[in-house]
Design goal:
Blueprint lengths: L1 H10 L4 E3 L1 H12 L15 H11 L5 E3 L1 H11 L9 H12 L3 E2 L4 H4 L5 H4 L1 H10 L4 E4 L2 H9 L4 E3 H6 L6
Parallel strand pairs: 1-2, 1-4, 2-3, 4-5
Length: about 170
């Protein structure tokens, strides 16, 4: 816990770069908490998980994203029948949420040159490049988390936070 508190304190004013799954959870939860447990891509989470993510977001002066993350979140958002009837309203909400984020652009041609590209893919490699010495990465992907730590990039793991009930009320 102290390690995460130290990381959060160090990056409080710089910002947190949030992985696709957690950003999707946040967007769905901000729109309608009850959709979390029925949306195809967020049903593995609970409303309590959303509340933890929301609490962590409020600890930072800014939440950072990349165009790659936003594209993934947009595509994942539309992959559930639970949004069909409310898709227009949800994507209006999605648009408003995007406006609250700091977007950091990493050229794909640069990401492709990184050794991790083949194992991580474009989105996660762009996260790695954007975060290096700039932002704290917040992810629920254990393999990606391990790669970030190995690459000397500061990160916090949602799975760990959730399992230990850190940041819960």
């Amino acid at each position: 816990m102290k390690e995460y508190e130290s990381l959060i304190s160090r990056y409080r004013n710089k910002g947190a770069l949030v992985d696709s799954n957690l950003l999707l959870l946040y967007f769905i939860g901000k729109y309608e908490k009850n959709l979390i447990t029925v949306h195809k891509r967020t049903k593995k989470y609970t409303i309590k998980d959303f509340e933890i993510v929301e609490r962590i977001f409020h600890l930072f002066s800014k939440i950072v994203t990349t165009p790659n993350i936003l594209t993934e979140v947009s595509n994942l958002s539309g992959q559930s029948g639970s949004l069909k009837k409310i898709k227009d309203k949800y994507f209006e909400h999605f648009k408003n949420q995007i406006e609250t984020l700091d977007e950091n652009y990493i050229q794909s041609r640069n990401a492709c040159q990184v050794n991790y590209f083949a194992s991580l893919g474009l989105t996660d490699t762009a996260i790695l490049l954007a975060a290096k010495d700039n932002y704290l990465v917040f992810t629920d992907d254990l393999d990606f988390y391990g790669t970030l730590i190995k690459a000397d990039i500061d990160a916090i793991n949602f799975t760990y936070i959730s399992a230990l009930n850190l940041f819960s009320t």
